[in-house]
Backbone:
C-alpha cells in the first residue's frame, strides 16, 4: 500500500497527496487530484513566484520602497517589514526580526498593481498559472491567503520549482536562500524559532525544530503550509516534492501527523526521485 494512503486516517473529510520526482513527474498520488481546495497560506509561494517573474521583467525591484518607511519589496517578501500578522499595525522596526505577516503580502500585491496596472490574481494567472497549465488554480483576493488549487495543479507548480523555466535558476535559488540571516521569529503553530529562516516568499526548513516537514528533510527544503490544512514542500537535494491538501483547518492534528508523514514520504520515494 502507498504511504500516501495514510492521509485516509486523518480527521479531514477530503484529502489528496501527490509526490513529484526530479524529472517533474508525478510518481504517486492518493485522493482526487482534480478536487479544488482552499490553499490559505500556500497561496504565498504562488504569489511570490509571480513576483519573481515581475522582478525578471523589471516591472518591480527588490529594492523598491514598499510598506512602512524604510521597508522594501525584499523586506515584505521575507516577512521583515514589521507588520502585524493580519493588520496594519507596526510591531517592530524594519529588519529587526522575522514577523510572519499576511498584510505584508497584501501590500506587495498593491505595489505590483501600482507598478504594472495588473492585480496580483491576473498577474499570477498570466505569468505562472497559464504557462504551467494550472487551469484550476486562481487567486481570488488576497495574495497571502485566497488561493484555490488542486493536487494536479500543485504538482505542476512543484515540477517548476524542481526545474524552473519561467524564471532563471539563479532567481529561484536566491528566493529559496536565507534573506536577512540570523533573525528570530515565530513559525505559526510551532513556536519561536532561533533563527526563523525565510527566503523570498518561501519558508525554509533550515534547522528548525519542531517543524512540519520531517526531521530527516535536508535544511535546503523549502515550501509553505496553510491554515486550511495544506502544505507543499520541495527537497532540492533529493529532488523530490510533495503537495498535500485537506479540508480540515490546521491544528494539533496536523502538528502530530505531518512531520512523521513527511519523513515516511521522503524515505519511501527518495530513491525514485531521479
Residues:
Amino acid at each position: 500500500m502507498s504511504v500516501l494512503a495514510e492521509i485516509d486516517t486523518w480527521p479531514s473529510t477530503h484529502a489528496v497527496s501527490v509526490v513529484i520526482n526530479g524529472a517533474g513527474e508525478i510518481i504517486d498520488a492518493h485522493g482526487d487530484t482534480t478536487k479544488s481546495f482552499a490553499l490559505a497560506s500556500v497561496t504565498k509561494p504562488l504569489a511570490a513566484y509571480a513576483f519573481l517573474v515581475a522582478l525578471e521583467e523589471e516591472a518591480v525591484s527588490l529594492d523598491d520602497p514598499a510598506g512602512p518607511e524604510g521597508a522594501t519589496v525584499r523586506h515584505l517578501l521575507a516577512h521583515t517589514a514589521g507588520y502585524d500578522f493580519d493588520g496594519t499595525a507596526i510591531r517592530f522596526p524594519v529588519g529587526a526580526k522575522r514577523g510572519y505577516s499576511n498584510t505584508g503580502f497584501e501590500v506587495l500585491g498593491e505595489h505590483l498593481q501600482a507598478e504594472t496596472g495588473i492585480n496580483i490574481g491576473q498577474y499570477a494567472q498570466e505569468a505562472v498559472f497559464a504557462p504551467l497549465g494550472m487551469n484550476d488554480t486562481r487567486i481570488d483576493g488576497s495574495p497571502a491567503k485566497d488561493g484555490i488549487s488542486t493536487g494536479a495543479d500543485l504538482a505542476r507548480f512543484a515540477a517548476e520549482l524542481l526545474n524552473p523555466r519561467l524564471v532563471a535558476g539563479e532567481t529561484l535559488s536566491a528566493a529559496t536562500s536565507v534573506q536577512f540571516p540570523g533573525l528570530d521569529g515565530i513559525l505559526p503553530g510551532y513556536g519561536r524559532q532561533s533563527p526563523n529562516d525565510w527566503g523570498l516568499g518561501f519558508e525554509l526548513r533550515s534547522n528548525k525544530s519542531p517543524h512540519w516537514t520531517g526531521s530527516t528533510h535536508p535544511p535546503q527544503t523549502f515550501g509553505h503550509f496553510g491554515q486550511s490544512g495544506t502544505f507543499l514542500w520541495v527537497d532540492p537535494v533529493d529532488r523530490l516534492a510533495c503537495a498535500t491538501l485537506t479540508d480540515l483547518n490546521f491544528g494539533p492534528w496536523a502538528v502530530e501527523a505531518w512531520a512523521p508523514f513527511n519523513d515516511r514520504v521522503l524515505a519511501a520515494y527518495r530513491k525514485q526521485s531521479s
